[in-house]
User: Fold this.
Amino acid sequence: MKKITLLIVLILCISVAAYLYIDTKDPVISWGVEQNAYINDALKINISDDIGLKDVCYSLSGGSCSGEERCSSDLGSQSFDLLIDPGQCVVDSEPLKVKMAVKVVDTSIVANKTEDSIELTYDRQAPNLTTLGGTLSMKRGGTGVVLYEVGEVPVETGVLLDDLHFKAFALGQNKYLSFYAHPYFVEADDFKPRVFAVDAAGNLRKIRPGSRTASWTYPTEEIELTDDFLEIVKDKMMATSTSKPLDVFVEINNKIRQENYQKIVQLCQTTVPEKLWQGVFLRNQGATRANFAEDRTYKYHSEVVSKQVHTGLDIAGLNNMEIQSANHGKVIFVGEIGIYGNVVIIDHGYGLHTLYGHLSKADVREGDHVKKGDVIAVSGETGLAFGDHLHFEVRVNGVPVNPIEWFDPVWVVNNIETFLPKADM
Assistant:
């Protein structure tokens, strides 16, 4: 009986030892990149095993590397980061095709082995960029265009200005066009746009688009808020709110206005990669009641409670006047947007849009194609409007720009149209 018990114990011990020390799982090699990927730095490869790693060997082939094997032995850990630098293989120029091969052995009594390889392109050279033409003179609040060439097919390109990214549109082999803006909220000394291109390896190059810019002064206005006016605003926009009228106004003018602004920015990301408009933009009839980039300070009992900037033109004519499309384009939005009321947005291509707000009704639907001068809506006073008028905006990649430029045939020809025929290159 004792022999049987001893035998059972021995079998159990052997089973436990086998469980603990005999592993059937192969080590795992995690490359961190896909096969045939582009990289511009040393590659960190993670090697792991549930029991432990003994030997890790690798070889590099390509360029000056002949496939010589290098090993790290007696690691004794369950995880190991293997750093391989293809830069050591570069002879004269990049990009360089390299092959990495890795062999791994674990510490199991019956050793498990894993072998794997990957082929990559090592490239540290940023793509070449060359400007071909574009707007030479801009001013704060204005629009520019740049044509340029990239030495290779980029994964991302356009014009950067701080955290703003203006889209680029392909014109042909390696050639691109990008409309960009000097935002009204950026001072001339701080306006430093850069044409950029990123290649498949993540290399970035930036160059100046070649335009000059100048400061421009826009109107300022101080508005003294009255209790009667605040009550009207509350009843019009947030009648069910339990907040005080002044608090309601501040929320509308700050928080809701910003939310509406961002919604319009997102809507303006929808655009076609071609020019839909023709020539100068049409201005709807009526008197200008508020200007673009008008800096407004709101006071209550002589204390400043809010500051905002008007992002378009307010044009007032007859009540319920017919609103015409400023140029050829495609309707991308018809609906209500907070303080803007009922809105129509038209895409004119290449990231250029016009917005028509405070409408009493729209006579177009999303997806409609319109011509310059087509009646698209009727004016009104929806949203945060007091009196029948049209709120009109021009936006470049969602950034509001001065519409007056686009009403000027000389400006349109000299600063925009002159450069667009190069799109056929």
Remarks:
- The chain has a mean pLDDT of 93.
